[in-house]
Fold this sequence. Notes:
- This protein is an alpha+beta fold.
- It contains 13 helices and 16 strands.
- Strands 6-10-11-16-15-14-13-12 form an eight-stranded mixed β-sheet. A five-stranded mixed beta barrel has the order 1-2-3-5-4.
- The two termini are about 35 Å apart.
- Magnesium ion binds near residues 386 and 389.
- Magnesium ion (MG) binds near residues 378, 386 and 389.
Amino acid sequence: xxxxxxxxxxxxxxxxxxxxxxxxxxxxxxxxxxxxxxxxxxxxxxxxxxxxxxxxxxxxxxxxxxxxxxxxxxxxxxxxxxxxxxxxxxxxxxxxxxxxxxxxxxxxxxxxxxxxxxxxxxxxxxxxxxxxxxxxxxxxxxxxxxxxxxxxxxxxxxxxxxxxxxxxxxxxxxxxxxxxxxxxxxxxxxxxxxxxxxxxxxxxxxxxxxxxxxxxxxxxxxxxxxxxxxxxxxxxxxxxxxxxxxxxxxxxxxxxxxxxxxxxxxxxxxxxxxxxxxxxxxxxxxxxxxxxxxxxxxxxxxxxxxxxxxxxxxxxxxxxxxxxxxxxxxxxxxxxxxxxxxxxxxxxxxxxxxxxxxxxxxxxxxxxxxxxxxxxxxxxxxxxxxxxxxxxxxxxxxxxxxxxxxxxxxxxxxxxxxxxxxxxxxxxxxxxxxxxxxxxxxxxxxxxxxxxxxxxxxxxxxx
Length: 463
Ligand code: 4AD
Ligand code: MG
């Protein structure tokens, strides 16, 4: 039996020319005349279609009628150098089999559908050039993330998805329950009786694996998590998802400067990996969507990120004379428009902002001597805004406990976390990278809903 060759392999293996090959895939187009017909076949392994040539002295019109756009096909034939423009090799079909026909109502008949249209056909959109390219880049980036941390000796730690604590304290959590919502059990004082719930208490889907990541780092030294996280914030923006993937390294004995160094090295490594391994896909996306894509990626690779404090950043914004939708002064949380001004207009480089006011950051961040700021760090990127959020962690038991009390976080949720500071505490740091924001940056796509296969956002959980 002939070995089935992936189309990517066909293009990359010159020794196959002159040999009989078997290829399998989906039909993108068919065209031609009574003498010869051409089928563009794609199997998802590469952005490039393989041209299959049907000599019509060997096939009938009825044979060819089965080969419609979207149908799935197995073809055998000789691989030859192509005379035609635009492809290096082609297959001269000897024999074919249609696995599955694709009737005329196949939604991806024509090229050039809008991204909005394709979002409604997200079950089929991976079969388009754009989405297959994005998904291949996404896969390569996921691999690069593991490779980077494994090469550095970090351990991959799996943290729970169901949790009883709120890491970010933002209150944007999806509740997890098996209680009957139409007939909730009540306690004597009328409250919901969570003792009857599956876990015996209220639980939610996690917004971050960080707190458990810290348990790992204060035992294994350097760990990373990489998994799904969930946020029920009602943000209908091109940069927010309700379900997204986060990479969270957490390192014992790192201060905030070590943390920034790691973040910068990490992002550059991932971008370089994608440029080295997904060149054709990135070139395709550049051509289709974003003329400056490769230039921007190279630029990030070859420049040091600017590092400055939140206070300095706010001064620049105030002095800019620019009218922002949200006014900015010391103490306000920065909006995407502010972040992008600093990155795209002022510095024209990625920026790491540090030392934010403690009121706008989470409870676990290390408090600075000034009593006003914490050792937070946000990495801000062109076109994206915040791509990473992290900090040095408060390692002092008393200071952390006091902050938890000030914010009225229940002790019963935090006792285990506080134990890391009680028993052998160490300076430590970590950060979270929004994986889809990285994919957004590397692919040049505009909307985060187009860089995850089946996005979850308000009022949308189809597919
Ligand atoms: O800044 P965030 O909220 O930080 C944390 O959750 C920390 N616990 C991370 C840590 O220190 N271990 O989120 C981290 C990153 C953001 O910078 C952003 O890239 C991404 O996660 N992110 C989202 N991505 C898509 N959709 C959303 N709704 C996101 N919210 C945050
Ligand atoms: Mg953040």
